[in-house]
Amino acid sequence: MSNTTLHYIYDPFCGWCFGAGPLLTEAREIEGLHVEPHSVGMLAGPRSKMMSPEWRDFVRPHEKRITAYSHVEFGAPYVNGTLEDPSVALDSGVPTAAMLAAEKLSGRGLEMLKRLQRAYYVEGLPISNREVILSLADELGYERQSFVKAFEDALHVTLESHIEASNQLLSRLNARGFPAFALEIGGELEALPVGRYFGRPEKFAADIRSKMATTQGEE
Q1: 53 to each of 49, 84, 165, how far by Cα in Å?
Q2: Which residue has the higher pLDDT, 35 or 216?
Q3: In the CATH scheme, what architecture does the domain 4-218 have?
């Protein structure tokens, strides 16, 4: 079962991806499963923007549905602060680079991603801000100089190719959007219908374990 990977396609500013957090928490507990995050860069580069009434009006109805389906709550600092602050930058590239840096340094990209999601959607922190990123890296125990180098390398060298590959994977899965999950066992990819599992993380983990066990039995 050691060659089993759960591919997770997401964007740091995707509220539905925040809602998928409990699924990731359960998946991380599965022995022999590697979870690999792929950011699509929804708001990266020329697509980045500042917080605006238009963006706020776009995401708020979705966030009510996300909470209803996933039982994940958005924090008051985000709802009443971040969404009302026009100085907040929305640039997927910066938090994606933080995830890539954490993955390169310690294989903890998913842990960084989940911390970023909590920082933004619960604590209302502007996660496209470099100083916020470095503060979170400090909190997670990274040596500052090493993280800065890995972060800058990710931001200026590997980010574009990572985003391109993530979108290619999304297309390969014929997924309608993100979050999207695909289980890879022995080189074979199987898309997992995320809508079936929102609010049911235990079912998500149980189905993955079942698929892994079935494949192992066939070997």
Answers
A1: 12, 8, 32
A2: 35
A3: 3-Layer(aba) Sandwich (3.40)
